[in-house]
Structure prediction request, 151 residues.
Amino acid sequence: MMIVRKLVFFALTFAAMCLGPQAAADDAAPAPAAKPAMHKQKGTASYYGKHFTHKKTASGQPLDPGKKTAASKTLPLGTKAEVVNKENGKSTEVVVTDRGPYVKDRIIDVTPKAAEELGMKKEGVTEVEVKPVDVPKTKEQQEEAVKNPPQ
Prediction:
């Protein structure tokens, strides 16, 4: 009897997953597409070391230290974001092409080019504000953004 209950439970769960929410409520309006969070983040930034040069990023593109790209754990790949150095007011625009940083309490890694524009190369880390400017809405927009980041 217990086996039959488990089979029925799994069959109903599987059917609900396959049919989605419309199976339970045919009159329900479709849910709007989820949008990525478009909020400012404040925290510590660092920049990629030389040993990452030309290594493949999460986007599939090699890391080019002469372009203004970044790694973020939360922003979608292809997102254009403004990074503002809170200590000196300098800013630059980057495109998210990678995942990371993987160091506690850091919110973004930028390329040496972006670090130079932010005035943080000597210190290596700085407090920043990251403001998403443009989040790609399609796979094509995402691919275009990561292939053509600002220089």
Observations:
- Strands lie at 41-47, 69-71, 80-85, 91-98, 106-110, 125-134.
- The helical segments are 2-19, 112-118, 139-147.
